[in-house]
Design a protein that fits this description.
single chain; mainly alpha; two-stranded antiparallel sheet; 53% helix; flat; binds zinc ion
């Protein structure tokens, strides 16, 4: 009996299936295990699964930032930093560590927030301001205002420069 089971397992390992996303016939080892599925494996291969998880994560993160910043182009609430990769979701009243222990981190964290109907208590901040908030809260506002001023100033200069094409791009 044991022998039969083992040989069955071996046959199973040799099996391949076509991933409908990349349209490639791949061995089952190239698929994540999924107990709920009929053949015990995901529909899509590991690579396609990873790609779609990454995209889902990016979209979900964007959705969260838009919601909490109330802006189409999310930015740091303190200094106006708009670069998406530099933004984080800040727990306004602190307690981030405990919350992450409950909601998880990364993809799971954002998924839990959405599931909970985007609860209050979060704001969009850049890494720098978020660090400052913890290390030098007394300087947070001033540095944020300076950065905002700097950003606006650079924007104005760029517009002014644009009026004189002979100067080239700034
Ligand atoms: Zn695939
Ligand atoms: Zn900032």
């Amino acid at each position: 009996m044991v022998g039969i089971c083992l040989s069955l397992l071996n046959i199973k390992d040799m099996k391949t299936k076509i991933c409908p996303k990349c349209d490639t016939d791949k061995p089952l080892t190239e698929y994540y295990k999924a107990k709920a599925r009929k053949n015990g494996h995901d529909i899509y291969c590991k690579i396609c699964q990873q790609k779609s998880t990454k995209i889902q994560y990016r979209l979900l993160r964007e959705e969260a930032f838009k919601f909490y910043s109330k802006l189409e182009q999310p930015e740091c609430i303190n200094c106006g930093e708009p670069v998406n990769e530099l933004l984080v979701l800040d727990h306004i009243e602190g307690g981030g560590r405990q919350d992450r222990a409950v909601r998880g981190s990364g993809f799971n964290f954002y998924r839990a927030l959405k599931r909970d109907g985007w609860p209050e208590g979060f704001q969009v901040m850049c890494y720098n301001c978020n660090n400052l908030k913890h290390t030098h809260p007394q300087h947070l506002k001033r540095i944020g205002e300076n950065k905002r001023f700097e950003r606006e100033y650079i924007k104005t200069i760029k517009v002014e420069y644009g009026k004189y094409p002979e100067l080239g791009t700034w």
